[in-house]
């Protein structure tokens, strides 16, 4: 097992990669613990949960809303959870988002930790302290930043994931490689068979490399005022595609990465060969989907993007595999590029 520490102002979060999730019992307080999970995870692993109250959500983005937070807070209150309480999330990105948000606002903040059950959550969502719920059709518009005390990433839990859920997480792993780790990108390129067979040792290595990179970024810029913005590579277009097509997050981000890569090439930041390598890798894992956003759809979504300030938006470009840069550009430039890309299809 590898322990990766994320140090932020006045707080330390431990990411435990490669250990068994059942070890979580030794990390919990003696009392005041509740578990937040979803129905699917509870069905698969509930018989091994610690003997504490369990509150279960419907799987999927539909649970990321304030009504769910309010209902869970009522349940915590009824269970006698006070300011010394502890919320343990056992699930993927949605469960960790909801549980982290709940822990950050219940009684002005109680402790929390995660057992991360999906590849998407292990490489991205459960690391870094971001917790968000959706506001209508806008993703993660309401949120907090609160680091979990620990995150357990057990590769054996990935064996039970449906293939589409697994591949969704792989997209975020590729994102990390494109923006910050050329060696990781090359490892993914040459490991197709072992990735698709979910080789446990390889997954442990891949997840650890991704978490180490994100940990360095978050430790330097917890509140996303600078460097942390590079983690949004592919997300401006990706969120728009996600809402239009109702895709899983990773597949939408993959389409967003294709667009951001093409945009980077158009601006002269990457070579034709680098553009081809990135897009070919996304295609090899069948991560790209057709999309045809109307001008109105894209404009509405981009104008509600959290990365927008006034008439400009912080857009993430790749400057070569393993390198990224954030530029503040006019929203109109983003919209114009998509129209050109769409018209070439």
Question: How does this structure look, described?
Answer:
Strand 5, helix 3 and strand 6 (111-116) form a beta-alpha-beta unit. The radius of gyration is 20 Å and the shape is globular. The chain has helices at 39-45, 66-78, 93-105, 119-125, 163-180, 182-189, 192-196, 200-220, 235-245, 249-266, 272-284, 295-303, 331-344, and strands spanning 2-8, 11-17, 33-38, 54-57, 86-91, 111-116, 130-135, 138-145, 150-153, 308-309, 312-318, 324-330. 46% of the residues lie in helices and 20% in strands. The protein has two domains: 2-160, Rossmann fold, CATH 3.40.50; 163-344, Dehydroquinate synthase-like - alpha domain (Dehydroquinate synthase-like, alpha domain, Up-down Bundle). Strands 1-2-9-6-5-3-4 form a seven-stranded mixed beta sheet. The chain has a three-stranded antiparallel beta sheet with strand order 10-11-12. Strands 7-8 form a two-stranded antiparallel ribbon. The protein has 345 residues and is an alpha/beta fold. Helix 2 crosses helix 3. The model has no long low-confidence stretch (mean pLDDT 93).
Q: Strands of the biggest beta sheet: in what spatial order?
A: 1-2-9-6-5-3-4
The top-level CATH class of the largest domain is: Mainly Alpha
The global form is: globular
User: How many DSSP E strands?
Assistant: 12
**Helix tally?**
13
Unreliable residue stretches: none
**Percent strand:** 15-25%
Overall number of structural domains: 2
CATH architecture of the largest domain: Up-down Bundle
| Helix content bin | 40-55%
Which structural category fits the helices and strands? alpha/beta
- What fold name stands as the CATH topology of the largest domain? Dehydroquinate synthase-like, alpha domain
Mean pLDDT: 93
CATH homologous superfamily caption of the largest domain: Dehydroquinate synthase-like - alpha domain
- Characterize the largest beta sheet: strand count, sense, and whether it forms a barrel: 7 strands, mixed
